[in-house]
Design a protein that fits this description.
This protein is mainly α. It contains 3 helices and no strands. It has helices at about 10-35, 35-60, 65-70. The radius of gyration is 16 Å and the shape is elongated. It starts with 10 loop residues before the first helix and ends with a helix.
């Protein structure tokens, strides 16, 4: 079964979401335990995740580029 185009099955999406999940975990822990350093680390990781997602998408690891590699136009 092939992955359908447009559902985020790309290296850029998985990397970005993975980093964003780690960042949101640190933000949650920082809020719950009152750790300011965890809040700032979570914010930094969130910005890094967004930047990684955009950068990887631009260099060819995004959904559009990924779909072209799997299904070349005839």
């Amino acid at each position: 079964m092939q992955d359908e185009v447009g559902h985020g099955h790309s290296i850029a999406a998985w990397t970005g979401v993975g980093i964003l999940l780690v960042g949101s975990t640190f933000i949650s822990l920082g809020i719950f335990f009152g750790l300011m350093w965890a809040n700032w680390l979570g914010i930094a990781l969130t910005l890094l995740g967004i930047g990684a997602w955009v950068a990887l998408n631009k260099v060819g690891y995004g959904q559009d580029h990924h779909a072209e590699k799997q299904h070349p136009a005839t």
